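Q: Is it fine to ask for two folds in a single conversation?
A: Yes, each is treated on its own. Send the first.
Q: Here.
A: Result:
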Amino acid sequence: MSASGRAPSAGAGRDAGPAPRPPPAHSGAGHVRATVVLILLTLFVSGFAYPLVITGIAQVIDPGAANGSLIRDPNGTIVGSQLIAQNTSAPYLFWERPSATDYNTTLGSVTPPGPTDPALAALLNETLAYMREYGNFTVNASLPFWFVSWSGSSVDPDLTPEAVLVQVPRVAAASNLTVEFLTGFVNEHITEPPIPYIGVAYVDVLALDVALLPLEGR
């Protein structure tokens, strides 16, 4: 009996052996599992949840833009998008900016020529050729650079008001509409910059032509 009055246990004095080892804090299988879960979660959030939420918000705020800014004719048929120019060459319609890719949205585009680029001479020749055939050389009938140069995307449907108004004599000669009417018609379709003096006023030529066709009886 011990001094404390308790009997020693049966295992007292024996070697208890090494303590059990705790499981490793990091294992290869654990890392793989966490990586897979993280990848799946990222794909779900960025590829499904986020686009769904943003699309839903856009449909509430501006459904027209969310659906592609589509343009429809009077019969309701989709004829294009306000964001993409089309190759228009009919004399009774206003022409859009040239395209280095023939208005193909799947191709890249080169940078428009600058003031020192030799390619600018070809554009100036186009300017003179157009004015000789359709325009006149009065002070108010110059051909803006936008009308003979392509945009950065090469499918921009917008032109400055000056580049549209200079086409009025040609459109009037090929249609049953007067110069005075067409001038006012173009002015009604000018979009001013959201903040005055910051940005450029423009005309969406595709939307302008779609609105013009019924007036010409076409």
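Q: Second one now.
A: Result:
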Amino acid sequence: MAVINYITQIQFDFGAVKLIRAECERVGIRRPLVCTDKGIVAAGLLARLTDALGDLPFAIFDETPSNPTEAAVMQAVAAYRAHDADGLVALGGGSSIDLAKAVAILATHPGRLPDYATILGGSPKITPKVAPLIAIPTTAGTGSEVARGAIVILDDGRKLGFHSWHLVPKTAICDPELTVGLPPKLTAATGMDAVAHCIETYLSNAVNPPADAIAYDGLQRAIGHLERAVADGTDREARWHMMSASMQGAMAFQKGLGAVHSLSHALGGLPVSPHHGTLNAVLLPEVVKFNEAVVPAKVQAVARVFGRQDGAGLAAAIRELNARIGLPAGLSGMKIGHDTFEYVITNAMKDHCHGTNPRVATREDYMLMLEASA
């Protein structure tokens, strides 16, 4: 028996951020806390949002780190309570949106953040009491605006997931205008995050045919427009399609991800704090080769999007794409050495994405993937 849910209300088009006041009213948010980061403020994107909020009383938390942490979540919870907020607006990449989801839990639930981590049995403890959230992405990669999960680095260094249908934003405002002019390197990294989401979802062993179709279409959009978006940050058509690919990847990955993400989540907890999308891009070639043994027809279908015929050709095509858009060729380019691999594998085996990879990976399999990706 397959249980299929899709997903939330989405406002999608250039200029959609202007709808924020109406969406706050629709979902009952009268005193929002805006969660964002310093880069968004410096880029002038926060001003577009606050102009659209008008006279709605709001407060701002702009201390979101590049990878959201438990400490930052607690600071934002304090800001939420100080403002007497009744909801959240997240403006930024996946970090700001994921941080806001964690705030939505702790602002309305007792205990500590680890109590609600998925692998620690915390998902059933997340109730409909979560603070309402509206998510506005400013990158095209994570898709967190339509996802039920968040990834946060805990105070003890673990990078854990928090998942509940109650965490899905009440509205996703997808405005491609907010991504116009995004720097090439960030466009590349977030774009490959979307590519990885689409591919891993499509290959996952969970049963969800609508997710497969959405992921495959999203992949075609990404491969058709990513290089254009990297080359010209003002290419509006490319930006529109990349935002759609990002959204579609996350709409689809409700089905489940796989070994790319179990490894990248573990690697993301290292002190070097590598970019999640870049990690996915570097790990993806070896994972698709590993999976071809059990889902050959699906791997071959993905390969055809890249103009190739099989897993080996697909792996080569992904590496070539990474090089063309300026991403590192291996983990060593992100200062990740072999001395971290045992730690990474231990945490990857515990990750919530490990079980939905189409082929069960052993410690030895993970080691081979990491060594080949180094």
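Q: Anything structural to flag on that second result?
A: Two points. The chain has 14 helices and eight strands. The mean pLDDT is 95.
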